Amino acid sequence: MAGRDIAGDDMDMGGMHEETANKNKSFGERLVSWLGRLHTMVIHFPIALFIGAFGVELFGLWRRNRDYQHVAHIMLVVGALGAIAAAFLGWFAGGFYLTDRNPILMTHRWLGTLIAVFGVALAWMAARHRKGPERSRTLYWVLLGLMTLAISIQGFLGGTFMHGGINHLAF
């Protein structure tokens, strides 16, 4: 083993395996696979921004300062854009099927799509409330709370694919 770079050898072997597998795929198949692999990289920003917007809104309520609503609105806009990208890439990762034999994958697919749709709705609602601050924010708060819950569930479901099944959070 002396003088041998084990990590380098492993990476070369893995690289050769991937290269051999890619030789049998068309450009389109390689592109779809690559776009699907970007999903796991993109998901973290909308997760952080949506949950952060909820926290910023709560902080603004606690401080009784409406200026935090503007910050939350910006976070929701960027989070919604990120959620659209994550959902789009997720369809590449999971395949373009409306139903799936795996109920966890199907729930993850459609919940992610709904998170992107409701993310846009929340950003729009936040903008409306900034223009008309006298409007009731009850529906906005309910949707923002449900979004935070949905993202938590979505993260758990996604973790089942990446970290070893439904019991991946077992202690």
From TrEMBL:
Keywords: Membrane, Plasmid, Transmembrane, Transmembrane helix. The chain crosses the membrane at residues 41-62, 74-98, 110-127, 139-162. Pfam families: DUF2231 (PF09990). Residues 38-160 form the DUF2231 domain. The keyword Transmembrane helix applies. This is DUF2231 domain-containing protein. It comes from Sphingomonas sanxanigenens DSM 19645 = NX02. The lineage of its organism: Bacteria, Pseudomonadati, Pseudomonadota, Alphaproteobacteria, Sphingomonadales.
